[in-house]
Amino acid sequence: MITAGQMRAARALLGIDQKTLAEMAGISVPTIQRMESSKGNVRGVVDTLTKVVEALDRAGIELIGDNVPSMATGRGVRLKEPEIKPTLPDEQGEQ
């Protein structure tokens, strides 16, 4: 599971907005908005949740669940080496 807080924190670590995350995951911006406004665990269609988690993973985000060995406790996100570099909104027109 992913929490709304984890989604917002992951976007902050990547420096991306909701539109960019939606594009990375292949879903709509309103869907990202609904997911991020959830209380606690994000609720939604499993396929949609999977798309978001996989997009974040490809961008270098490691989601940390409860009871997972870590230097800290609780849920969080950790920035890891990305497989791909996300295209930031100001870079989309440059090539």
UniProtKB/TrEMBL annotation:
- Domain HTH cro/C1-type, by residue range, is 7-63
GO molecular-function terms, A-Z: DNA binding
Q: Which Pfam families does the entry mention?
A: HTH_3 (PF01381)
Cite the residue spans of the region called Disordered: 72-95
Q: Which SUPFAM superfamilies does this one have?
A: lambda repressor-like DNA-binding domains (SSF47413)
User: What protein name does the entry list?
Assistant: XRE family transcriptional regulator
